[in-house]
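Lecture 7 notes: from sequence to structure.

We start with a single chain of 103 residues. Read the sequence below before looking at the structure.
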Amino acid sequence: MNAARLAFVSVFALLGTVTHAQDAATLSKDQYLDKCKGAWAGQMLGVCFGDRYEFRSNGAPITGPMDPWTDDRIANAIGQDDCYVEMTFLKALEEHGLDVTYA
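Now the structure, written as tokens:
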């Protein structure tokens, strides 16, 4: 499943869970935006931390020590497909609404 489809399915699965939960919480717009920013930051950090290991293990676990985090690694976040593909999909949703198609 590609990243855009996974993001789309995940959002609707989450919405279905929240709208049917008996103890659903209400978030202010500021709280919601804060959580979204935190989610993006977490994804960007995770992607940038793991990018140097992608395709290195060929299915075998990496058992040695991990390289330490350095702040300069986040500079490449926008060039990571795990980030920019989702931004493109969100832009399509913004322009075409929930009835967006692959075309």
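The radius of gyration is 17 Å. Keep this in mind for problem set 3.
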